Amino acid sequence: MKKQHVTLSDNDRTYLEDLISKGSLSAKMYKRAVALLELDRGSTFTKVAQIVGVTIQTASTWAQKYGENGLEFLTDKPRPGRPKEIDGITRAQITALACSDAPEGYSQWSLRLLAEKVVELEYIDTISHTEIGRILKKTNSSPT
After folding, report:
1. Alpha-carbon distances of 78 from 73, 81, 95, rounded to whole Å
2. For residue range 115-143, what is the model confidence (pLDDT) as tens digits?
Protein backbone atom coordinates (compact mmCIF):
# COMPACT_ATOMS: atom_id res chain seq x y z
CA MET A 1 0.00 0.00 0.00
CA LYS A 2 1.29 3.48 -0.91
CA LYS A 3 2.10 5.99 1.78
CA GLN A 4 -0.10 9.04 1.55
CA HIS A 5 2.15 12.05 2.08
CA VAL A 6 -0.63 14.63 2.43
CA THR A 7 -4.20 14.28 3.65
CA LEU A 8 -6.32 17.21 2.57
CA SER A 9 -9.50 18.18 4.35
CA ASP A 10 -12.64 18.20 2.23
CA ASN A 11 -12.70 22.01 2.30
CA ASP A 12 -9.05 22.25 1.21
CA ARG A 13 -9.55 19.71 -1.58
CA THR A 14 -12.61 21.56 -2.88
CA TYR A 15 -10.81 24.90 -2.65
CA LEU A 16 -7.81 23.61 -4.60
CA GLU A 17 -9.94 21.99 -7.29
CA ASP A 18 -11.92 25.22 -7.72
CA LEU A 19 -8.71 27.24 -7.81
CA ILE A 20 -7.24 25.08 -10.58
CA SER A 21 -10.43 25.08 -12.63
CA LYS A 22 -10.59 28.89 -12.73
CA GLY A 23 -7.30 29.13 -14.62
CA SER A 24 -6.45 32.67 -13.54
CA LEU A 25 -3.61 32.06 -11.13
CA SER A 26 0.16 32.18 -11.27
CA ALA A 27 2.16 29.20 -12.48
CA LYS A 28 3.77 28.87 -9.06
CA MET A 29 0.43 28.66 -7.29
CA TYR A 30 -0.93 26.27 -9.92
CA LYS A 31 2.02 23.89 -9.51
CA ARG A 32 1.69 23.91 -5.74
CA ALA A 33 -2.06 23.23 -5.90
CA VAL A 34 -1.65 20.37 -8.40
CA ALA A 35 1.16 18.89 -6.31
CA LEU A 36 -1.00 18.91 -3.18
CA LEU A 37 -3.90 17.27 -4.95
CA GLU A 38 -1.63 14.58 -6.41
CA LEU A 39 -0.04 13.91 -3.03
CA ASP A 40 -3.51 13.64 -1.52
CA ARG A 41 -4.39 11.02 -4.16
CA GLY A 42 -1.43 8.93 -3.03
CA SER A 43 1.19 9.85 -5.63
CA THR A 44 4.83 9.66 -4.61
CA PHE A 45 7.11 12.66 -4.38
CA THR A 46 8.93 11.38 -7.47
CA LYS A 47 5.73 11.16 -9.51
CA VAL A 48 4.51 14.57 -8.34
CA ALA A 49 7.89 16.11 -9.14
CA GLN A 50 7.65 14.76 -12.69
CA ILE A 51 4.07 15.96 -13.13
CA VAL A 52 4.65 19.56 -12.05
CA GLY A 53 8.27 19.86 -13.19
CA VAL A 54 10.05 20.40 -9.88
CA THR A 55 12.59 18.46 -7.86
CA ILE A 56 11.63 15.72 -5.44
CA GLN A 57 12.93 17.88 -2.59
CA THR A 58 10.62 20.73 -3.63
CA ALA A 59 7.58 18.43 -3.64
CA SER A 60 8.58 17.17 -0.20
CA THR A 61 9.04 20.73 1.08
CA TRP A 62 5.60 21.72 -0.20
CA ALA A 63 4.03 18.78 1.64
CA GLN A 64 5.85 19.78 4.81
CA LYS A 65 4.82 23.44 4.48
CA TYR A 66 1.20 22.41 3.94
CA GLY A 67 1.38 20.37 7.15
CA GLU A 68 2.73 23.37 9.05
CA ASN A 69 0.77 26.28 7.54
CA GLY A 70 -2.14 24.82 5.60
CA LEU A 71 -3.05 26.52 2.34
CA GLU A 72 -1.20 29.70 3.31
CA PHE A 73 1.94 28.26 1.69
CA LEU A 74 0.36 28.63 -1.76
CA THR A 75 1.31 32.29 -1.79
CA ASP A 76 4.79 33.56 -1.01
CA LYS A 77 5.42 35.73 1.99
CA PRO A 78 6.73 39.23 1.27
CA ARG A 79 10.44 39.17 0.70
CA PRO A 80 12.79 41.46 2.53
CA GLY A 81 14.45 44.22 0.63
CA ARG A 82 15.06 47.88 0.53
CA PRO A 83 11.81 49.79 0.06
CA LYS A 84 11.48 52.23 -2.81
CA GLU A 85 12.42 55.72 -1.75
CA ILE A 86 11.02 57.53 -4.77
CA ASP A 87 7.28 57.18 -5.27
CA GLY A 88 5.41 57.29 -8.56
CA ILE A 89 4.43 60.94 -8.25
CA THR A 90 8.03 62.03 -7.83
CA ARG A 91 9.07 59.85 -10.78
CA ALA A 92 6.38 61.52 -12.89
CA GLN A 93 7.60 64.97 -11.81
CA ILE A 94 11.17 64.05 -12.78
CA THR A 95 10.02 62.77 -16.16
CA ALA A 96 7.94 65.90 -16.78
CA LEU A 97 10.92 68.07 -15.87
CA ALA A 98 13.13 66.14 -18.30
CA CYS A 99 10.57 66.70 -21.06
CA SER A 100 10.41 70.45 -20.39
CA ASP A 101 12.63 73.05 -21.97
CA ALA A 102 16.22 73.13 -20.73
CA PRO A 103 17.23 76.04 -18.50
CA GLU A 104 18.59 79.19 -20.06
CA GLY A 105 22.16 78.78 -21.21
CA TYR A 106 21.77 75.06 -21.92
CA SER A 107 20.66 73.41 -25.14
CA GLN A 108 19.33 70.32 -23.35
CA TRP A 109 19.04 68.73 -19.93
CA SER A 110 21.93 66.67 -18.57
CA LEU A 111 21.40 64.05 -15.90
CA ARG A 112 23.45 66.06 -13.40
CA LEU A 113 21.51 69.22 -14.20
CA LEU A 114 18.22 67.36 -13.73
CA ALA A 115 19.40 65.96 -10.38
CA GLU A 116 20.31 69.45 -9.17
CA LYS A 117 16.99 70.91 -10.32
CA VAL A 118 14.94 68.11 -8.71
CA VAL A 119 16.59 68.81 -5.35
CA GLU A 120 16.23 72.57 -5.86
CA LEU A 121 12.50 72.18 -6.56
CA GLU A 122 12.28 70.00 -3.41
CA TYR A 123 10.75 67.00 -5.18
CA ILE A 124 13.15 64.93 -3.06
CA ASP A 125 15.89 65.69 -0.53
CA THR A 126 18.74 64.07 -2.43
CA ILE A 127 19.18 62.11 -5.66
CA SER A 128 22.10 61.12 -7.84
CA HIS A 129 22.38 61.67 -11.56
CA THR A 130 22.57 57.88 -12.04
CA GLU A 131 19.20 57.43 -10.32
CA ILE A 132 17.74 60.11 -12.60
CA GLY A 133 19.07 58.08 -15.53
CA ARG A 134 17.42 54.89 -14.23
CA ILE A 135 14.08 56.67 -13.77
CA LEU A 136 14.17 58.10 -17.28
CA LYS A 137 15.31 54.81 -18.78
CA LYS A 138 12.24 53.07 -17.36
CA THR A 139 9.96 55.68 -18.93
CA ASN A 140 11.74 55.60 -22.31
CA SER A 141 12.60 59.28 -21.89
CA SER A 142 15.99 60.64 -22.72
CA PRO A 143 17.32 64.03 -21.64
CA THR A 144 19.89 64.02 -24.43
Report:
1. 12, 9, 29
2. 999 999 999 999 999 999 999 987 665 55
